[in-house]
Sequence to fold (360 residues):
Amino acid sequence: MSVGENRMDAFQYTGLPARVLFGFGTIAKVGDELASLGCRRAFVLSDPHHATGAAARLMQVLGALGVALSTDAVMHTPTDVTERVAEKLAACNADCLVALGGGSTIGLAKALALRTDLPQIVLPTTYAGSEATPVLGETRDGQKTTIRSLKVLPEVIVYDVELTYGLPPAISLVSGINAIAHAVESLYAQDANPVTSSLAEQGIAALGRALPAITSDPADRNARADALFGAWVCGACLGTVGMSLHHKLCHVLGGSFGLPHAETHTVILPHAVAYNAPAAPAAIGRVARALGADRAAQALFDLAAMNGAPTSLREIGMSQSDLDEAATAAVGSPYWNPRPVERDAIRALLDDAYNGHRPS
Ligand code: NAD
Fold:
């Protein structure tokens, strides 16, 4: 079956359970959501950035319903941090997890939910999209592995657009491109389907519009709402279909070489799209259409470059001497991909990404 063609092919689709509240000031409704789940003792998670701001406000909103706050979340969900926080969780007899933060905080909540089966209410503050997926990436001894389990899928997502106003434009941009990457890979996934594909186009279009607007005016309420909506649908795409080469490369570069997550997605995406374009022309054509461009790989590169995001692995901390090892790791146990994943071609892709070449 070819993916992304106009004719209706056979497909399978499994919808994920999700309750979503989207709006401005919705943080005030978290207590009601707790009550709807029948919960009374929330263990609240966040990161150091939000400790004295939004996370403290959430504790205020929760009052007696919030039994403890941990602001220990860090990037790439290292298992030693999870195990340390799990001890704090065990000590306070909580009956649910409430997470406020980006993908790192939500990753920590998911890792705890995997171990305890506690329900989760999450308030995303970036565009990473993790809240809408049953996927958890964890890092142990420098290896990032991914599991898929409904145990980690949050029960409730509370999108409060106001929580994203303070996300600096530079982080907004790379985070939004991270979300776009989920939708792009869903369009050429082995299990692509018409429901996910139309969501993907919608999400790419929303973020493609919103990100330049946020770069010029971070307080643009409509652009912030558009971007957060886009992040949700892109995350939902990743939640329902498989990942391919782009995510594999990012997992290797993030997990084994410590590169920052969203920046790595931003640098790699145009090159992964250029790599896959000959094998999935219809799907990549839909990416271009959503961005209002002729060619997807170049449009994605320009979206990053013209708004000031990093475009090379060199800029984000990769050392050239590690490229060989990264190429070897990327072809080891590869994810399904529309174009065969060959080491020499992947090494060339990494070289282009390292040097920040615009795909030709
Ligand atoms: P993050 O959560 O680490 O946030 C990035 C930085 O932005 C942090 O310093 C944080 O404090 C700050 N920040 C977050 N929200 C802010 C706000 N509103 N205002 C100001 N600063 C803010 O990074 P991320 O890119 O959101 O998430 C990356 C992690 O999420 C990675 O570990 C990645 O593997 C995971 N992830 C998982 C999935 C999945 O489906 N499992 C999907 C996407 C990302």
